[in-house]
Amino acid sequence: MNKFTPAKPAGARSVDEITASRRLRRMRKADWSRRLVRENSLSVNDLIWPIFIIEGKDRREPVDAMPGVFRLSVDQAVKEAERAAKLGIPALATFPKVEMGLRDRTGAAILDPDNVINRATRAIKEAVPEIGIITDAALDPFTDHGHDGILRDGIIVNDETVEQVTAAAVLQAASGSDIIAPSDMMDGRIGAIRDALDANGFQDVAIMSYATKFHSAFYGPYRDAIGTAGLLKGDKQTYYLDHANSDEAVREAEQDLAEGADMLMVKPGLPYLDIVRRLKDEFAMPTFAYQVSGEYAMVKAASANGWIDGEKVMLESLLALKRAGCDGVLTYFAPQVAEVLKG
Length: 343
Description:
Pfam families: ALAD. Its EC number is 4.2.1.24. Homooctamer. GO terms for molecular function: porphobilinogen synthase activity; zinc ion binding. By secondary structure, this protein is of the alpha/beta class. The chain has twelve helices and twelve strands. The strands form two sheets. An eight-stranded parallel beta barrel has the order 1-4-5-8-9-10-11-12, surrounded by nine helices. The N and C termini lie far apart (52 Å).
């Protein structure tokens, strides 16, 4: 016997005896068999593409912390919507970077029917009517302090904020938004928006609730993209969820569904897979995750340094969200993923 060959102990069981002939590698032996038993898959139909909108014409400003992501003037956003539609991406989620001269303590410019986000919705819907548009009625891009609500005496006031967010949602629906996705996390906002949409003839406009938006360190590049990074004083712990809590997330989702939400969102995505799974199991409702800017930036940075295979990690991270229970994902990778899947 070769001295490097391990001796089989007397009476040792064979692998077939140990496994009772249940060899789990059998269906992994070939590509065709792995595909045949694959439990989850990723398709272009799972993608929502968040894009950033700015004033002007023919403008594409790079977001430094998010390589490959740009702030787009309305005409450029229309071109990207046309590209998204050709790739089969079902929907866009639009977020504005508002000029400082238009910001104030209450975010009043969100109530301008011709603000940049409403103009972008109208332009995209006119050029690419088949693509879905999701808009956020939160105030943070419009305030001069970077918070998601009206700031009074150092406090984000809930009920006044809900009134303004609700009025903004109706204006966004009137501009052609298909789904209102209010991210401000104020109590009662979903019910107030549903009532107002219905009262104004927008019964067919859906609500995607940011039901579980956590107080997270993963949002940094996004705040740079919309121009609130240097404005924010204090933090958002009085209205975003504590990232240590999961029971509270279930209660928030339950409340939003009772108020009329059509679908739920978990934000951020990959660090909160347990929340996705709990919500899907508990409510069996359409459930989405937002793969946020920090998640995107980390993959891009590690890939640029040669530490990971960026494309494989991109696809794996999205499939992990699907496996956890997501029906779809908001991701800045959307066009890149669509190209890979198409190819």
